[in-house]
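Onboarding guide, step 5: your first structure request.
Type a short instruction followed by the sequence, for example:

Predict the 3D structure of this protein.
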Amino acid sequence: MRDLKKNQKQSRKVRQNKLNKQAKPLNWRKLLRRTLRVGTTVFSAVLIIVGGFFVTQLLLTSDLFRIDQIRVQGNQRLSEEQIEALSDIEMGVNTFHLDLQLIGQKIEENPWVKEVQVQRIFPRQVVITLQEREPVAIVNLGYLYYLDSQGEIFKVLGAGDNLDFPIVTGFNQEKAQQHDAEYAQYLRQIVALLDDLKNRQLFSIDQVSEIHHEAGGQLSIYTLAGGVEVKLGYTGHSKKLDRLEKIYAQLQPKLQVLDYIDLNVNEKVIVRIERLKKNGQS
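The system replies with structure tokens like these:
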């Protein structure tokens, strides 16, 4: 009985505590502070959005940001007028209306352009910086194409284009235009050979008329004087040309009667004199 009375007293205390808690008055000051804080945040956000809208409209319509100068730099072959025409930028357009990426893509449609960077210079200027391609040879694929210093075929030769480059032959047009990986490697190998020839004194690029690529990757050079084939094979071209240069001064006066020069035998230069026989028979 005592326990029962004790439990009843404890239950009454718990109920009384709940009632006391429920009857606790609201803290209006705290509630007002929260309401003001939320209202201030919302008002600030609205103010920023509206202000941003008006600032944007001001920038897009202000005469202060109308383009009045296009500056082109890095161009060698293409004129400033050609680049400006490719960019399709109209004088007087607002600088914030320009799509710089799209302008760059338009300029890169010209095959001479390798890379381009378009920049806004506030308030009224656009700067176009070019990196043009450098042709190192002409590839015969039925039509004649320029080959650049990275081993990429990039342009069909047209009227007025410079023809004073070595001719590269032996490549299949379809594979070359499909950017065949094996062909790309062979073309880079030819560019490396051309770079080697540019740095030579006795047998230099000025004495080369053609570089021929054979099936499987073998290379041959044809001399400008006499059209003599110089067989280089697959690899080790630089060392083979070193051997040729040691005796080239003796061979040069006789190029008209040589059939070919073979550099594929270690430490030797094999020379075949056959034209003399053919000329004698004729």
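Each response can be followed by summary notes, for example: The chain has a mean pLDDT of 85.
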